[in-house]
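> forwarded from #structure-qc
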């Protein structure tokens, strides 16, 4: 009599074609999928680089070192790592880490928390959910009257909702944007991905940031192939690493088929794809 498969056996993705529009950690995600037997179609859509002008970033670090804030809101793990790089190049790494240790910190999701732990630090507050709304909900329970609040932004021109909330409560946030997004792929490469999706040659696509979604849609509109992109994303299964990416897809009218339940990172994303597409 054949034994039923063990519940701890990971579903195989053998023979499945999965598109990965990841840049910074493309190989990490691709390798996780390939270990389960998937054929990965790599198409880095968005890259990340340091803010082009280091002066305002270093000035922000110097302010934090001179006078640790009453609260530091951290949006991304990338932000922590980029700030550390700027501090290192300015000869302020040790002082910056010490200032972070003296500053109460609020993180939006697991990535900034992990980045802090690599420095031997932890966050005193966590967003109720890994969104701007979650940050605001957690902030609403803290008395910030007369306090100095610093904010690590993920882009200089991001949605101002959190900043508006602070200003409405009499706080002028001290903001820093230590990195920028840059197109990392030639348009033709991204257009080829749209062709593959539309032709039904992709079983699934795994989005790990909303900037990837925005870039793909923008390119499709510029090339006049938005209809092909929409048809392709109807044919393929669509996975999102977390609720922020899922919300962006849904706001643009796309279906989301898979998302990790609670830990929004690469391995849970691969697990979600395995459960959606795989066979034990």
């Amino acid at each position: 009599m054949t034994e039923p498969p063990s519940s701890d056996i990971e579903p195989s993705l053998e023979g499945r074609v999965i598109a990965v529009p990841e840049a910074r950690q493309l190989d990490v995600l691709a390798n996780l999928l390939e270990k389960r037997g998937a054929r990965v179609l790599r198409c880095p859509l968005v890259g990340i680089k340091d803010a082009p002008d280091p002066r305002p970033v270093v000035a922000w670090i110097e302010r934090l070192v001179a006078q640790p804030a009453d609260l530091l809101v951290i949006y991304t793990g990338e932000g922590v790592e980029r700030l550390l790089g700027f501090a290192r190049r300015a000869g302020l790494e040790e002082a910056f880490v010490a200032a972070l240790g003296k500053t109460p910190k609020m993180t939006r999701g697991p990535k900034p928390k992990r980045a802090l732990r690599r420095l031997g630090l932890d966050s005193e507050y966590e967003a109720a959910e890994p969104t701007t709304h979650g940050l605001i909900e957690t902030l609403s329970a803290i008395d910030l009257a007369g306090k100095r609040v610093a904010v690590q932004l993920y882009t200089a021109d991001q949605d101002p909702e959190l900043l508006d909330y602070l200003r409405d409560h009499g706080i002028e946030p001290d903001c820093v944007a230590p990195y920028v997004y840059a197109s990392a792929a030639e348009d033709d490469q991204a257009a080829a991905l749209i062709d593959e999706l539309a032709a039904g040659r992709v079983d699934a696509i795994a989005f790990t940031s909303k900037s990837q979604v925005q870039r793909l849609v923008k390119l499709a509109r510029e090339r006049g192939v938005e209809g092909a992109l929409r048809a392709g994303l109807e044919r393929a299964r669509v996975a999102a690493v977390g609720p922020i990416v899922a919300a962006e897809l849904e706001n643009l009218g796309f279906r989301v088929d898979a998302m990790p339940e609670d830990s929004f990172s690469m391995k849970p994303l691969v697990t979600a794809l395995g459960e959606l597409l795989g066979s034990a």
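QC bot note: Residues 1-7 have pLDDT under 50 and may be disordered. The longest strand covers residues 46-50.
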